[in-house]
Amino acid sequence: MAELAPSILSADFGRAAEAIALCRETGLRYVHLDVMDGRFVPEITFGSKMTADLRAAAGGMEMIAHLMVAEPERQVNSFCEAGADYVEVHVEATAHAHRAVQAARGAGKKGGIALNPQTPVAAVEPILGDIDILLLMSVNPGWGGQSFIEPVYAKIGNARRTIDDAGLSGKCLLEVDGGVKPENAARVAEAGADIVVAGSAVFGTADPRAAIEELKGLIQ
Ligand code: DX5
Ligand code: ZN
């Protein structure tokens, strides 16, 4: 069904490498890094140096860098050089989202586009064949611990059908990010997500390892 990609946003950043190592030890394929610049979203988290410093802890896991930053095309290369495997830019943050994806691909990495809840899938449909991952935000970006925005379930289905009808299943991955909990994780996967992000539902719990195993059981 779907893969789990924990977000370390809700983890203790002073122990971020341990959080990443835990994800690796539980056999996960992806980890989700939430990069915030204080402009595109109000909060500031971390940048490409933290990403580089976490690369060793990630081991063979693929690091997905979710850039919630203004002018993201200016940041793509530094995150690629830092060791991110996927770099995702928000279509709302740049007039050059396609060029940003091309830059990631040119750096030997994979590029993706993130859509805020109100942005239709149609905004990127013309170029779905040129991107490696489509990220649907199911919360408004900038914080962990929010509630899943209900209309996004239908949006996931629309994106799933659009990707499949274009013959891009497995080529353009569908990632869903925000408000995923044990109560709705299976529904998100059944709606068509390839990758399900969970932040507070993992690192906001007393036992992240158990939370990961529970969520894996619900979506795989
Ligand atoms: C929000 C981030 C999400 C967030 C998910 O701006 O993009 O990845 O960390 O956190 P939860 O799972 O707690 O909603
Ligand atoms: Zn994210």
Account of the protein in words:
The chain has helices spanning 16-25, 48-58, 76-82, 97-106, 152-165, 185-191, 200-203, 208-219, and strands at residues 3-6, 30-36, 62-68, 86-90, 110-115, 133-137, 173-177, 195-198. The protein is an alpha/beta fold and 220 residues long. The chain has one domain (3-219): Aldolase class I (TIM Barrel), CATH 3.20.20. Strand 6 (133-137), helix 5 (152-165) and strand 7 form a beta-alpha-beta unit. The chain binds D-xylitol-5-phosphate and zinc ion. The site of zinc ion (ZN) has 6 residues, from strand 2.
What's the number of extended β-strand segments?
Answer: 8
Main beta-sheet strand count, sense and barrel state: 8 strands, parallel
Distance between the termini: 5 Å
Number of domains: 1
Stretches where pLDDT falls below 50 for ≥5 residues? none
As laid out across the biggest beta sheet, the strand order is 1-8-7-6-5-4-3-2
Could you say what the CATH architecture is?
Alpha-Beta Barrel
Number of helices: 8
What is the CATH domain class?
A: Alpha Beta
General form: globular
CATH superfamily: Aldolase class I
CATH topology: TIM Barrel
Share in β-strands: 15-25%
Ligand inventory reads: D-xylitol-5-phosphate, zinc ion
Based on secondary structure, the structural category is alpha/beta
Helical coverage, percent range: 25-40%
